[in-house]
């Protein structure tokens, strides 16, 4: 019978501290890496072990595009556009690329959508499994390193054009600040200060972030910065989707603070997106940075 992530992570008696996972030996039952457990009991469920019947043309697969993260006074904000492309075709207009990692962290992805969504699910289980086994959550650095291991596991797929590039961010309870980690196809993690963007529209988004970010941003201002950066990315990159007022499709935005992870409601994002679009009617190129500031 084919296993699932959920079945493989289900613990005996609701907790596996001291008991191990039902059906596994003592040593494997106390392994704190869910990916390593999966590699032993159901390796076919690992995203990078998926076998194709023949050659895969990357242009025939959906790809997610632009994601970004911004540090603000109370933590960090992550955002992503909603478009997925398949070559020159828009494959999906409402894809969500930002997800909960755990209570104090978030993960976003760019790249091959099918593999990326499975990697995000595996990462969520990895963090949940570690906390069950060890009785405490991983540090933010530890979470970033676990994600890097999963990205590295996908290297063989990446060199065939099926890359998954995440961005990871969270609130570091030990230092009381938001932090951002980037990755490449070989793994990582690489901590980045203040802001970061990845995906096909990232060169344009990074330019906007450099001009708009400043220390001590409020959460609301950080969300404005994210939406402005995604608008600029969509303006120059055909694979990135901007705010779609006609279809009422807006960027996905999540915040992580000392209170934990929160996905911003559509009503809040819509208000900001509509304000950005209205301002662009008067200034199509967006806010102008001071030459002396």
UniProtKB/TrEMBL annotation:
* Main location as per UniProt: cytoplasm
**Single GO BP term:** modification-dependent protein catabolic process
Give this protein's Gene Ontology molecular function annotations. Answer: threonine-type endopeptidase activity
Q: Which residues are assigned to the propeptide feature?
A: 1-64
Q: Does the keyword Cell wall biogenesis/degradation apply?
A: no
Q: Which GO terms describe its cellular component?
A: cytoplasm; proteasome core complex, beta-subunit complex
- Which key words are in the record? Autocatalytic cleavage, Cytoplasm, Hydrolase, Protease, Proteasome, Threonine protease, Zymogen
Q: How does it assemble?
A: The 20S proteasome core is composed of 14 alpha and 14 beta subunits that assemble into four stacked heptameric rings, resulting in a barrel-shaped structure. The two inner rings, each composed of seven catalytic beta subunits, are sandwiched by two outer rings, each composed of seven alpha subunits. The catalytic chamber with the active sites is on the inside of the barrel. Has a gated structure, the ends of the cylinder being occluded by the N-termini of the alpha-subunits. Is capped by the proteasome-associated ATPase, ARC.
User: What is the annotated role of this protein in its UniProt record?
Assistant: Component of the proteasome core, a large protease complex with broad specificity involved in protein degradation.
Which NCBIfam families does the protein's record reference?
20S_bact_beta
Family listed: Belongs to the peptidase T1B family.
Question: In its UniProt entry, what is this protein called?
Answer: Proteasome subunit beta
Q: In which organism is this protein found?
A: Actinocorallia herbida
